[in-house]
UniProtKB/TrEMBL annotation:
Cofactor(s) needed by this chain: pyridoxal 5'-phosphate
Family, as annotated: Belongs to the class-III pyridoxal-phosphate-dependent aminotransferase family.
Keyword Transferase: yes
Protein name per the record: Aspartate aminotransferase family protein
PANTHER family, A to Z: AMINOTRANSFERASE, AMINOTRANSFERASE CLASS-III
UniProt-listed InterPro entries: Aminotrans_3 (IPR005814), Aminotrans_3_PPA_site (IPR049704), PyrdxlP-dep_Trfase (IPR015424), PyrdxlP-dep_Trfase_major (IPR015421), PyrdxlP-dep_Trfase_small (IPR015422)
Residue stretches spanning the membrane: none
Keywords (A to Z) from UniProt: Aminotransferase, Pyridoxal phosphate, Transferase
Amino acid sequence: MSHLFYQTSSFRPFLERGEGVYMYGQDGKRYLDGSSGAMVSNIGHSNPAVLAAMRAQMEKSTFGYRLHFQTEASETLAARTAALCPPGLDRVFFVSGGSEATESTIKLARQYKIAIGQGSRWKVISRMPSYHGSTLGALAITGYDPLTGPFRPMMREMPKIPAPRAYLDGMNPDDPATGLHYADMLEAKILEEGPETVLAFIVEPIGGASTGALVPPAGYMQRIREICTAYDILLIHDEVMTGGGRTGKFWGADHWGTAPDIIAISKGFGGGYVPLGAMIARSDMVDAVMADGGFQHGHTYAGNPLACAAGLAVLDEIDRHGLIDNAARMGALLKSRLTGLMNRYPFIGDVRGQGLLLAFELVADRATMEPLPPAMKAFQRLVDIAYDMGLIIYSRRTRGGTSGDHFLVCPPMIVTEDQI
Ligand code: PLP
């Protein structure tokens, strides 16, 4: 018996080692990591250059508390990260994961508004469904009932608007009217709540696990930026999954050229080598908070030199091997192959995504997008069949948590045509 209580629905082998896009179990089997773990191992497993950089850093120091020492690794990674951001976003706050990153964004947003005399603003609008993390603050802005339900009495739940799932609503995602239709729901919610009470809107530029690689409809990202600006509401991009190149551009929002006020990144930032994340914010926001007594927030392991050295090496490897371009090319190929499967299998209702953040959805009827009945257990069977055949895919039930089965197909950005 295992003393762990992580949730897995069926037997999984012990992991022996990982190399490139493959993972090897102690059962002697080789698995293609078709989801990069949880969309984390973007540059593949056991990259020698990253291991060498970690080893070199470990021989110097593994930990330097950020209030006691500056470190070259954290300074350099902060500068590199800021240089990748839209102009004006150049202050970096390191954390050790995605939930810490998103929670940091809403706390900084709140302190900034207090600092500039707008203390009446505290509501963070987000989308349903969405996933921003599992700690109580991040959960309050998460739109996913099975996860939030038990904890509702323990947190202050925040307003939600529907995610722009045009494919479920029978709307054309390429029609700018569709983007406006969903973006206008943000404006309506702001007016309903009272603009003077609204602090921020948080959005995954391309949806992750909760919506299954949902690409927003034409015009949506531009319009939400305009609405936030018009009502003096901070726009937060949760790029925890999309940041780092997986979608074929470094930031998911680069596909639309829109700039937020704060960004959260994690997952591919540490690439599965170390827990690493960051929040990047506008200088004037950080300066206002610092002048008002400082940011009342922080985590012990934040910005430790080992994590930052690994993060730097991950960025170097992405550049050296042109992995963002590879993600765009291999993603287009994989998407066309997945779309081709729709001709053979009527129960694939939708294929969507961008770059190597792709998903397909199982349905009972493509015309109505009716989900498969849960009793069929098709969802778990497909995961298990893939596993038996040596392929790992990431599964999530979305619609109400009981049906609506989508699968993320997100191999590492080093994947080759043969492996696709
Ligand atoms: N935000 C997004 C968009 C995510 O996909 C995730 C994790 O899946 C998180 C936040 C939370 O990250 P973590 O699991 O590292 O706390």
